[in-house]
User: What shape does this take?
Amino acid sequence: RWFTHFYVVSVLWNGFLLIRLFQAEFLGASLPPWIQHLHSAFGRDLQNQNTGSEHFSALLVLLLLWLHSFRRLAECLCTSVFSNGVIHVVQYCFGLGYYIVVGSTVLCQVPTNVRNGKESSVQIFWYHIVGIVVYIWASLHQHRCLVILANLRKSKSGKVVSLSHGIPFGDWFERVSCPHYFAELLIYVSMAITLGFHNVTWWFVVMYVLFNQALAAVLCHEFYQKRFTSYPKHRKAFIPFV
Assistant: This one.
């Protein structure tokens, strides 16, 4: 249940970054000095190939990241039913740091002098639309799967009656044991699409999410198989048919 803390940090921090980038993009404001130092450390001041579309792409991705964190926070508070399981203190600290770093990573995709006070011109491309559609599709399925998991521990009236595990059915659970992890991967892929496919830095973030979620899914899949003798044999751990 302390995963809730991760999303609180993300909503606050990435919301702050989103506001600052919006101000720089549309109001001609300058990014804070510490952000400029961060850009310099990563060599962003030496890269002049950024176009207006890439500025807008970064703003969209930061918005999608904030919306994702806000939804997950709402689900942790209002939907999910957590067991008494614990996480390691290192994992907890890493989780807090992750959502700070991932938002900063998006911000580092634009130069420090985003607009220099010039009037902004929004350019919407096909990959923005595709990315947002994939994001919405994956987010809806992730929410449905989390509701299915929560309902396993609730009565029909919505009261929590158990903290034990059960076999989930419905939606993407018919194909994989951990569809909410698969949806998480698709959400990050959708952000890579929104950035225009070619952003190597964000694809490294996608690779991290892939390995992280795959490991968690395999461990969860093996737990289901050991705990329930009647567990569906056709289900995969993480990615359908793989």
